[in-house]
Amino acid sequence: MELAIRPYATDDFDACVRLLAALPEWRDLPESVRDYGSVLGAMPVWVATVGERVDALLAVLRSPQAHSAELHLLAVAPHARERGVGRALVEHVLAELRAAGTRTVTAMLLDPAHDDGRHDPARRLYEALGFEPLPRPEALAAQPTVQWVKRL
């Protein structure tokens, strides 16, 4: 079966919540799964599917007035990782954002100093797609996240 990318539909809710719950980095965070599940549909979300199965989702926060967007949540099922599913989904969404007039896209990732390696694939993906980490002032050096940015 072929990979398809499309906007989230309300019928995707259960599959998306199951996807989030299956993520190794979220297994011990049921409240986060519940919280993110509750906002699905409240922001633009795209899903990558194979047949009826949702293999990935990408939620985006947009600021059309500022011509910017944040890739808020990228979730790729464990069985679909390192197979191009996340990359295809992000590339598709970036193309749609560009067509809608977005000029700058950001993503927040854990700083490697605060990560146990689980987010390395996301860092590699964003870097391969041309995102660059923004330098942080010394006063924010202890923050556990780093903002990555890409101009479209």
Explain what this protein looks like in three dimensions.
The chain is an alpha+beta fold. A hairpin with a 2-residue loop joins strand 2 and strand 3. The mean pLDDT is 89. It has a single domain (3-151), classed as 3-Layer(aba) Sandwich (Aminopeptidase), CATH 3.40.630.30. The termini are far apart. The chain has a 7-stranded mixed sheet. It has helices at 13-22, 30-39, 85-99, 120-128; strands at 3-7, 45-50, 53-63, 68-76, 104-110, 132-133, 145-151. Helix 1 runs antiparallel to helix 2 (30-39).
What descriptors fit this protein?
Aminopeptidase, alpha+beta, 152 residues, globular, 7 strands
Brief characterization of the structure:
With 152 residues, the chain is an alpha+beta fold. 29% of the residues lie in helices and 31% in strands. A seven-stranded mixed beta sheet has the order 1-2-3-4-5-7-6.
Present the secondary structure layout.
Elements: E1 3-7, H1 13-22, H2 30-39, E2 45-50, E3 53-63, E4 68-76, H3 85-99, E5 104-110, H4 120-128, E6 132-133, E7 145-151
Parallel strand pairs: 4-5
Antiparallel strand pairs: 1-2, 2-3, 3-4, 5-7, 6-7
Helix pairs in contact: 1-2
The overall average pLDDT, rounded, is 89
Summarize the amount of helix as a percent range.
25-40%
CATH topology: Aminopeptidase
Alpha carbon gyration radius: 15 Å
Overall SS class: alpha+beta
CATH class: Alpha Beta
Number of strands: 7
Shape: globular
Instruction: Give the SSE string.
Output: EHHEEEHEHEE
CATH-scheme architecture: 3-Layer(aba) Sandwich
Count of individual helical segments? 4
Multimerization state:
single chain
CATH superfamily: Gcn5-related N-acetyltransferase (GNAT)
Strand content: 25-35%
Q: How many domains make up the 3D coordinates? A: 1
Strand order of the largest sheet: 1-2-3-4-5-7-6
- Catalogue the unreliable spans: none
